[in-house]
Structures are given as structure tokens and as C-alpha cells.
UniProtKB/TrEMBL annotation:
Keyword Transmembrane helix: yes
Name recorded for this polypeptide: MFS transporter
Organism listed in the record: Microbacterium limosum
UniProt keyword terms in alphabetical order: Cell membrane, Membrane, Transmembrane, Transmembrane helix, Transport
Family matches, as PANTHER family: ENTEROBACTIN EXPORTER ENTS (PTHR23513:SF9), INTEGRAL MEMBRANE EFFLUX PROTEIN-RELATED (PTHR23513)
Length: 421
């Protein structure tokens, strides 16, 4: 970070703002449940916000490829901050409603997707190309901190001081992002620019059609997130198979984030690897194998392996929970290593003038993949059993990724010293 103080300030601000954002995301879910008593209403927050977030990400990418990226990020961050401040104001005055929580949550996530797409397009202008893997690893640390600490801290704050103070903490933490963005120089796109609109979007998609390496990494990520994202099963796993209830659900979720966090801390050797396509393939294969192994553990739990008498909400199967935590940490680490390679490839192989739009498409992949995964896991577990989706999903990942990469020798031969999209 010493080689780029501007990136260091941006990273620090984004980390604090991301932690605050997690507080608001979890607090809104708890708030909606308190007002409605409906799990369906809580799940609809994510469903209702998906389309606006995708549209905002795509349009934000077009804005980032035409206007000063610093200004685009600042305006979008201001909208995010204002929506959170309004949430806090409504909570302090006791005038919040389910509708207001939904609307402000959607505005918040949509504006934040523009910030994320623009910030990613800014990064290659702040750090040298050989340092992009390190920058991506630092972003992995940010995600790990957000996912590990954010939900737990939100639950504690809501329980101890209530919703108004929880939203207010996010309002304060997000000010750090303005420090990071506000101290940047003006960053105009390099090369020919296209005014935001259908032509700009078409140009972005046309470039993607001519970029087989970028296109394939998107497809591989969608496959991994669709068939290897069993988070929707964790509540039932904690209640029925492994026992321990909500505590088991929490530690399983945290294990994934812990794996991502630790892999970022020890990611130094990644920067010395030049075969990024091969790195993506092997990382996702490890991810798929660990996912299938987690399904096998759940299968063993269904047969009562190592289960104490009366296993259930109050009696956990500690040995199998420990093995599950280890396997899920491996999936988090493997996914993060893949993300480092994918992000570095995208930031170095995509021309600056088109980078914002490709980051916008990336936001669609990031937002859509886990939601497809939740749908896959939920539906398949409903018609079969809890252990089947991760077990068969891991196998599907292994088969599809191996087949697709073998059909694309150019992807396997990708060399970061000569980045080609």
C-alpha cells in the first residue's frame, strides 16, 4: 500500500463503509421481520432489489466509461449515504414502515453497486499492473471482514441499542469512503468514450463477445456460485442434520468468510503466478471438490455418524460440524483465490475505456450467481434431501469446469505478462 497512498486511502475507506453497509443490510432484515413476523417478507428484500441492482450496475459502468470516475463514485456514494441517513431518521422518529425499509434498501444497494463497479474500474489507474493481484487480495480481506464481523456486530447492536443507533453507526462509518474518494485526482477514461445509452451498452457486449478469456471466467464463476452456494441450506442443516440450531448456521457461514480472509492474508505467492487461467480453473476445482465433500459430510450426518444422542437444536454433532467448518473454509479460500485471478485478469486485459462497463457486467454475475445458487439449493433440497444439492453440485462443478476449460486452451495458456481478453 505504500506504493499507492491513494489506493490505501480508498481501500481503508471502502472497508469501513463495507462493514457499515453490512450492519444496515442485516438490520433491515431484522427490522422487517420485527414489523411483519414473515420470513417471506425478509427474503423478498433481496428478490425485489435484484433487478434494480443489476440495472444500476450496468448503467453505472457506462457512466464510469464516460465521465470522471471519481465524480461518478462520489455521487453514487452520496446517494448510498443519504438513503442510510434517512433510514436512521425514520427509525429515530418511529415513522418507519415496511414499504420505506424496502424502498430505501433498494436505493441503497443500487447506488452501492455503482460505487463498486466504478471503484473497481479506478483501481488499475492507482496501482501498477504487477500489484493488481495484491490489490485484489486486499479486497478479499475487506469482504472477509465484512462477512465475518458485520452480521454479528449488527445483531449485537440491534439487541443492545436498537435500530436507530445501528443505522447511525453505518452513517458514521461511511464517511470514511468519502475520505478515500474525495482525495483522489480526477480519473477520466482513457481512449474513445461513448455517451451512456444503448450504443454504449452494445459496445460493451460487443467487446465481451470478442473477449473469450473474460467471457469464460464469467461463465465459470456463474457455474461455481450456482452449484456450490449452499448457504440457503444452513438453517435447516443446523436444525435437522448437524444440530446446534442458529449457532451452527452462524459458524458455518462465518467459516466461508474466514477461509476467504485467511487466503487473502497469505496471498503473497499468488502475485508470482502468471498463468491466471490455469489458476482460476484449479481454484474452482478445489472449490467444487470441497463442496462435494461437504455434501458427503451431510450424508454421513443423515445416517447418524458420530451423532450424540438427541442431536438437534440443543445437541450439536460437534465432530461433523468441525469437519464442515474446515471444508467450507476451503471453499471460501478457493473462491477468493479464483476471484483474485479473475479480478486481476479483468483489470489488466480489458482496455480502460471499456473497463467500467465490464465491471458492470461483473456486478450482474456477482449479484445473480448466489441467487441462482439459493434457488438451486432450495428447490433441490425440497424435492430430495439436504445433503444432495452440495454433493451433486460439487460434482457438476468438477465436470463442467474441466470440460469447458479443456475446450479453451487459450484460457489455460493465459499469461498475465501478456494479458489478452
Amino acid at each position: 500500500m505504500t506504493s499507492s497512498p491513494a489506493f490505501a486511502r480508498l481501500w481503508f475507506g471502502a472497508t469501513l463503509a463495507g462493514l457499515g453497509g453490512q450492519l444496515t443490510i442485516v438490520a433491515v432484515m431484522l427490522h422487517v421481520f420485527d414489523l411483519t413476523g414473515s420470513t417471506l417478507a425478509v427474503s423478498m428484500i433481496a428478490v425485489a432489489g435484484l433487478a434494480p441492482m443489476v440495472i444500476a450496475g450496468l448503467y453505472g459502468g457506462m457512466l464510469a466509461d464516460y465521465f470522471d470516475r471519481r465524480s461518478v463514485a462520489l455521487v453514487a456514494a452520496t446517494v448510498t449515504w443519504a438513503s442510510t441517513a434517512l433510514l436512521a431518521a425514520l427509525a429515530w422518529t418511529g415513522t418507519e414502515s415496511v414499504a420505506s425499509l424496502f424502498v430505501l434498501s433498494i436505493v441503497n444497494s443500487s447506488a452501492n453497486s455503482i460505487v463498486s463497479a466504478t471503484k473497481s474500474a479506478i483501481t488499475p489507474r492507482l496501482v501498477a499492473r504487477e500489484l493488481l493481484p495484491a490489490a485484489a487480495a486486499l479486497n478479499g480481506i475487506t469482504v472477509g471482514i465484512m462477512v465475518m464481523a458485520g452480521p454479528a456486530l449488527a445483531g449485537v447492536l440491534v439487541a443492545l441499542v436498537g435500530y436507530p443507533w445501528t443505522y447511525t453507526v453505518d452513517v458514521v462509518l461511511m464517511l470514511a469512503l468519502f475520505l478515500g474518494l474525495g482525495t483522489l485526482p480526477r480519473i477520466r477514461p482513457e481512449g474513445a468514450t461513448v455517451r451512456p445509452g444503448l450504443r454504449s451498452l452494445a459496445d460493451g457486449w460487443a467487446f465481451l463477445r470478442r473477449a473469450p478469456n473474460i467471457r469464460l471466467q464469467y461463465l465459470l464463476d456463474v457455474i461455481a456460485m450456482t452449484f456450490g452456494h449452499p448457504l440457503a441450506l444452513f438453517p435447516a442443516v443446523g436444525s435437522v442434520l448437524l444440530g446446534g440450531g442458529a449457532i451452527t448456521t452462524g459458524v458455518l457461514t462465518a467459516s466461508i468468510a474466514a477461509g476467504a480472509f485467511l487466503s487473502s492474508l497469505f496471498s503473497g505467492p499468488i502475485g508470482r503466478v502468471h498463468r491466471h487461467g490455469l489458476g482460476i480453473e484449479r481454484s474452482i476445482l478445489v472449490f467444487g471438490a470441497a463442496t462435494a465433500a461437504f455434501g458427503a459430510v451431510l450424508l454421513a450426518a443423515s445416517f447418524g455418524v458420530l451423532a450424540p444422542e438427541g442431536v438437534g437444536e440443543d445437541v450439536p454433532n460437534l465432530p461433523l460440524i468441525a469437519v464442515s467448518m474446515l471444508l467450507l473454509a476451503v471453499t471460501g479460500a478457493a473462491d477468493n483465490v479464483s476471484a483474485i485471478y479473475r479480478q486481476t485478469m479483468m483489470q489488466s486485459a480489458v482496455p480502460d475505456a471499456i473497463r467500467g462497463r465490464l465491471q458492470g457486467v461483473f456486478m450482474v454475475v456477482v449479484a445473480g450467481g448466489p441467487r441462482l445458487g439459493a434457488l438451486y439449493a432450495g428447490v433441490l433440497a425440497t424435492v430430495t434431501t439436504l445433503w444432495f444439492p452440495p454433493l451433486i453440485g460439487g460434482v457438476i462443478i468438477l465436470v463442467l469446469v474441466t470440460a469447458l476449460v479443456r475446450r479453451s486452451p487459450r484460457f489455460r495458456a493465459y499469461d498475465a505478462r501478456d494479458p489478452q481478453p
